[in-house]
């Protein structure tokens, strides 16, 4: 792709000009954006870059392994893998407000990045995979309309007192362009084609308070759902899909017994940039089969519902 080849060269020049001889820390989230940003910056400045993957305990099943494998084995880019799940889950205990969750997570991310920066003798820059839609939907720090829909942690959710300056080479791109750039940079298709995953992770897919037990249930249900989508060949048709664990228990019946377990909500949308979205029209047979699998395979769930809300008026995530 000609435009992406040109963009790549231009951005590499810009990154070199901005960073000079400085050191950069790049936070990887497991999503496409931060991975593309990291590979691009690595191309620009090589070992002035340190990538940090923070396991905040809010990742999907096997996510840490997938990311670590990609960076250490495929790219040979040094990667620091920090297990900060105790700290994150500890501070999130009892937090139910969605914006407080995001801000808490944003603050902790910076604390971890600053800790890691210290270990390498200080860093001057923090790199993030912020995209154009993130910039316009989190307008609170950047001026513009006074309504913040959500403070994306990689834009508005950052504390103001941060010591490092930001490097955000994808700030002008939309998701489909980031994917093109990822291909241009040689990222494996399985990674480039992954659905978006928000920095705050499963915290915003677990409305109400977050516990390890709930996260385990959610992780398993989500894995079954995505497996179903892949098996039916629908993954690439859908822009984003995930499970949500509702903070509600309902009554069910299994064998001769009564159950009283959680409800799982399923979300799937089509979109081009995440700013607007339509709910995906699965056929009922797919949904029925998926519900049966989740209930049979995931202990703690006895009911499954499908979200038929588009954006607007809904957002894609539930928080
Ligand atoms: P919403 O829920 O705002 O989501 O319709 C639009 C897209 O943005 C992702 N998202 C986030 N990504 N930090 C991120 O890095 C966040 O705080 C955040 N909130 C939402 C969401 O997954 C969807 O792809």
Please explain how this structure is put together.
The chain is an alpha/beta fold. It has 2 domains: 2-192, Rossmann fold; 211-306, GMP Synthetase, Chain A, domain 3, CATH 3.30.300.10. It is built from 10 helices and 9 strands. The chain has a 5-stranded parallel sheet, sandwiched between helices. Strands 6, 7, 8 and 9 form a 4-stranded mixed sheet that branches. Helix 2 (32-45) links the parallel strand 1 (24-28) and strand 2. Helix 1 crosses helix 2 (32-45) and helix 4 (85-92) packs antiparallel against helix 5. It is globular and about 70 Å long. The chain starts with a helix and ends in a 13-residue tail after the last strand. Residues 139-146 have low confidence and may be disordered. The site of xanthosine-5'-monophosphate has 16 residues, from loops.
What small molecules are bound in this structure? xanthosine-5'-monophosphate
Q: How do the strands of the widest beta sheet line up side by side?
A: 3-2-1-4-5
Taking the sheet with the most strands, its summary is:
5 strands, parallel
Strand content: 15-25%
Coarse morphology: globular
Low-confidence stretches: 139-146
Radius of gyration: 20 Å
CATH fold group of the largest domain: Rossmann fold
| Percent helix range | 40-55%
Tell me the name of the CATH homologous superfamily of the largest domain: HUPs
The chain-level mean pLDDT equals 92
* CATH architecture annotation name of the largest domain: 3-Layer(aba) Sandwich
Which structural class fits the helix and strand makeup?
alpha/beta
Through-space gap between termini: 36 Å
> Tally the helices: what do you get?
10
Organism: Bradyrhizobium shewense
Enzyme class: ligase
GO molecular function: ATP binding; GMP synthase activity
EC number: 6.3.5.2
